[in-house]
Amino acid sequence: MNSTQKLAWILLSSALFGIVSFVYVGSTWALGRMPPRPLGQIAAGCVAFGAVAFFALTVFLVATRQSRAEPEADERDKMIRAKAATASFLGSWILMVAVLLTLGLTLGQTGLIPVYLVTVILMGVAMVTMLVYGVAILVQYRRGRG
């Protein structure tokens, strides 16, 4: 596994971790209260442990290479990264335009949305961008073409 594939797996796992955290925070907002006490403490501990374990795994995967003779990236890796970046950029713009058009059409030109909702939209777009980038890299490596 080269550095580009490691980066893709790191991005996928961080996006999925972000989505799970996002759903947990969203559920507390939707319920209007925190989950019952033991579940709330367990979930907070799991999130903290997961964040530390993910950071340690990221450092380990980025720092290690299969072989010292292996280059960091060749032309094929650069082409795969470029195609994945294009796909993630396109996907994030499509998502952003769809969300903003939906908000504009439902609320009208003078409608207001809370500031936290703008933050939620931007974080969601960022997570989708990371997810699309990671999936695009892994799909291109799986197909065996750059």
What key attributes describe this structure?
about 150 residues, mainly alpha, 4 helices, flat
Descriptive account of the structure:
With 146 residues, this protein is mainly alpha-helical. It has one domain. Helix 1 packs antiparallel against helix 2 and helix 3 runs antiparallel to helix 4. The mean pLDDT is 78.
Report the strand count: 0
Question: Strand portion, in percent?
Answer: under 5%
**Order of secondary-structure elements:** HHHH
Biggest pleated-sheet summary: none
What value does the Rg take, in angstroms?
A: 19 Å
- Average per-residue pLDDT, rounded, comes to 78
Q: Structural class, judged by helices and strands?
A: mainly alpha
DSSP helical segment count: 4
* Count of discrete structural domains: 1
State the helical fraction.
over 70%
- Principal-axes shape call: flat
Low-confidence stretches: none
